[in-house]
Amino acid sequence: MHLIDDESSAADLAFNQRLSPPVVRLLADPHLNSPPSPGFAKPPPPPPSADARPIVPNTVLDKTWPMPSPQQNPGLTVITRVPLPAYLTPQAVLEALHTYEPLIVANPYLKKYERRPVQLEELVNDAFFKEDGFKLQAFIVHDRVPIIPGVGSWATKDIVIPCVFQSFEHGVRCRADAQAGVTVRSSYEVRRAGEVQPDHPSVVHNQVTRAGAAETAGDYELVEIATIECGSLVKPFVKRSFSNAHQEVLQRVVDEIVRTSQTQYVYQ
Length: 268
What we know:
30% strand
């Protein structure tokens, strides 16, 4: 396992791993594993002392996560869009998305989340992360999912999902490796309304417009383009559950950005 931290040398990593130039540029990003933005997450602990023991993969944060196979099958593609209010500027939405936390805390089943080091192996075999991106960060997301809805906390299951985020000009890329071999690669983008359209009949297209939102909608929208890799047996279930859940999640992302921007305006 190769952990990437602020003191890692991209040149040394490239020599040892025979990395391609685009990956070298990704690893040279000064924001790699940088502290999260203030106001959304706790700062990381101070660096260990010189005599501290080396990292041993015996905890959730330090374990070696199974690496997804390179994308050979395009899988299932789901496009979800939410209109942005006219008073919310595209730049404000992008700045919020680039902190990553709004995309995490919008999950209704979230129990907790924490930063972890980015693993080199998570990047070199995945073309999803491109050289036009910056600020690679990784998280562990802990979900508590109800098995039998409405009967209490005893009928729930705790799951752990490792995620990797990358910012780029139009938004954020995120890969989440869920259980049962399900890998979700999502691109959250701020686009002009109607700019992103399905390019194939098999693409699932969800338009989210909450009651009253159409009257305040501006010229832009938040679009999630998600590609889901999973087994054929679970694909119908994943397709249905993902489509329904992410309509709510994407609206919650916008609501959180609106709430945060209004709070900042009040205190200015």
